[in-house]
Amino acid sequence: MRIAVVGCGAVGSLFAANLALLDDVEVWAFDLNELHVAAINRDGLRLTGAGDVVGHPRATADPAAIPPCDFGIVATKAMHTEAAIAATAHAFAAGCVATVQNGLGNEETLAAHAARVIRGTTFPAGKLLEPGHVQWDVQGDTTFGPFDASVPLAECERLADACTRAGMPAHAVADARGPQWRKVIFNASTNPIGALTGLTHGRVCERPDLRALVSGLVAEGKAVAAAQGIELDADPEELIDHAARPEVAYDHKASMLQDVEARRPTEVDFLNGGIVRFGRESGVPTPLNEAIWALIKGVEASWTQS
Amino acid sequence: MTKVVVAGAGSIGSLLAGHLARVADVTVLTRREEHATALRENGLRVSGRSDFTAQLAATADPFRLPEDTELAILACKGTDLEPLAATLEGRLPGATVMTIQNGLGAEDVVAAHGDWPLLSAVTFMSGTRHGDDHVEYVLDTATWIGPYRETTEADARRVAELIESAGLKVEAFHDLRPAQWSKLVFNATVNGVAALTCLPHDFHFAETERLSDLGHLVRDLVDEGRAVAIAAGVQMHDDPWEMNVLATERGDRHFPSMLEDVEARRPTELESINGALVREARRHGVAVPLHEALYRLVKAREASYS
Question: pTM, whole model, 2 decimals?
Fold first, then answer.
């Protein structure tokens, strides 16, 4: 089996390094960061933290170098999906391409370039420390499911089986929208609140008025999911309260807060923006998500002011 | 000449004191002694739309204000008004007292500390302090004055005439509430959005091209504010959305004080502006979910300083 990981930031690297440990899988790691690519080809791709691994995928910054693959795993930031799949789709002409990205709309973007798309949601997280070296912060499950009827469930199972054997527990389900929307609602309801206030997840949750605002955002997301017939696999509210515990993620600065502090573009278009767009399609009003979306876009716009 | 006290020498207090000193006998009450010393020794330079240096009396000691003061303008920030009014209790027996703070409720704070006749005012002019003895007159928009307690429109007009003869734009009203509410809704919206996005009040606030543009949020916030005004029995004097469009079309990039306060990690006037609007909404049973969200987010941002 041949798998290409498209976008080898933190999450992509977790997949690429672990999968490269398997004898029966040939792994390609595509990333535009030439230093990262060179380091992987020289010393391997090293993970430390929640697991200590050195994998040896074949890394390249040249999309034309990727041979035909059975699977692609797209792990770029959501705003780079279009460019990434446009450059690499040739490798998946006979295979399937899965997304493990954040947010809504990635599957649709992939499907414009690739015939067989797998919807995926993943919970592991990490941080790129230096070229060739990723800190593995959190282990977690991955769920795969067909985006549409063109993908047999068996193909999702084959990919999930490889990931599981590689130490990245994964399973395949017929409708993977439940876990995807649970994660999107969690992220869309908490990340921007941290980004706008500068508060960690725990401090957001211990302010009753702010926690109520989070619940208002969650309720809109749930209503949009329900209107589309999506059954959430768990209540995002429980995840939010769980994460607020001191031993879990009380002190965690949401990735969007980290992005805002570093003045990097955020994924808000695919989180709150995604909920708003799907809400419009299903006729569900999402005024709070619209407000939060506009505020974060305003924050991003403030960086280009003189 | 009319004996006038201007309490508070931020940019608005300085603009009023400097101009009034040309036609009245002005004493400025400052918070810091060195500020008063600088004003006594150097005079107050006004640049920008006016250009002169005013000679005036100044003190940081409220007990040295002239007892025969006829008009006292309390021009401090809303957050400093309560302690200021407390120090004036039992003093300035012949004075008419005029508040000029943002938001709602300043008059009642003062009323609780004495039985002076009260005028209320809102101002749209703006300035920038370049030092204790120098203020730049930036926006020469009007100050509006109306009766509040034991005063009439004629009293408001007399003070307006004095201010106008000093070279500032001013208008007297028989009821200030329509103007005050226009400014309240405008400030709650624009200052809150600016404080959260770090954008100065510029063209972004009127953009409505894309779904995520800030103009939609600004308009929705104005609509909520209008509903509260109507429920409170007030027909706003100016439409805050039009005020917003006009201000941004001028091409100015105004930095609202709430944005400056947030960036300097100082307490903001949130309670007397956004807090006042939200409390009025609750009192009249009007749902203002977006203003509630804005208020909670800025409040939480202030909490993030500690």
Answer: 0.89
